[in-house]
Amino acid sequence: MGEQRLDAGKAPQVIVNCHGDLWIKAWAETAIVAKGDDFTASQGDRVVDVTSKGDLKLLMPLLSSVTVAQTGGDLRIKGFDGDVNLADVRGDLYFSTLKNLTVNNANGDVSGRDLNGSLILETVHGDLRLRNISDLEVGNVHGDCFAAFVNGAAKIRMISGDVSLKTINGDVHIEECHRDVNLRNLGGQTMVDLAKGDVRIHGGLTSGKHTLYANGDIVVKWPLSAPLNVEANAPIIRNRMTLSDLVYQEGYLSGRIGDGQTFLILTAKGRIILKEASFGLSSWEERAETDFEIDVDLNGLSEHIASEINDRMFEWSTKLERDFGPAFAANVEKTVFDAADRAEQAAEKAVRKAEKAALNARWQMGQNIWANPPVTTPRKTKEKKATEEEQLKILRMVEKGIISPEEANSLLEAIES
Fold first, then answer.
1. Which of helix, strand or coil describes residue 3?
2. Model-level pTM?
3. Of the candidates 347, 149, 299, 127, which has an alpha carbon nearest to the alpha carbon of residue 138?
4. Whole-angstrom distance, CA of residue 266 vs CA of residue 272
């Protein structure tokens, strides 16, 4: 493997073309170090051009402005205070600890966390998973989208899969979602122009007007301590909240809780279900009369896994770089993060399986409301959660040095098979 070092100053502009996997990381020095089997690096006044026919590893100054014109494989980038622009990523993209990031096209999955500035994603052909970011602007995502702990606004143009947003401090605007929308703990104005599946919203909303439209059902779980003015339009409306000034007629309901200025306008082609924000279920007869809904939340576990990895990976990689060199540290970091990503994906798949089982149970109840309650879904959910707990224990064993990352990979693959 060849290596080249360029003295580039504190804040160089770097343009990269890479036909293989690309690994880029910031460091405290003012030089650029490139490592790969077949690459060229040239330096102008303030611009450094790097081209690689295979895999490439780059260390750059913290304030570098990075432009990746193309990468033929996966891209991992971490730690920059300068702007990062990614034109075309052919594989998966992972980023962390950046300031401003713009991605024009990502052909694989995109995973990222800890971004302090703006995030603009034009097209993602795989799934999108984000945590601890500022503002989010998304064009087209052809897979699922999950985002948690967004300090600013979240604007999404089109999602082909499911959308799950949790703890968003700013406004939320989803123009079009081809499947289900799940919203929890929102702090700004909320608009869902079109969800072709169901919409589920959990928690209170800020003052102002919020509008949700779904071709399927809309389920609202509302804390009774939060003020609300609600207007619902749907062929079937099920209300399990105590509302003042209640107006109810075929296809329409309006009412309020308290005297606040929070207005929620709901329109669904299926059903609208209003209920208290509680997890308890009453008798089987009540579930059969309204809806059979299984509340499964494995995201907390996957978030905990991600948090454990994120908190410790930087100090791990720094120590490994010092003792064994940056290439060895990069390989270990990639292995551990890949294991964490697989654990997150397994948790999200378990949620989707539980939701599908709930929909099947709901359909069966529509055929016969006196049918026996389905027992397979809770049993499967419990087993899947136990599996995720085993995965978390494995990752902690890696952290403590009990097993190697390669051994952890083998154990995770054995569990998931």
1. strand
2. 0.68
3. 127
4. 8
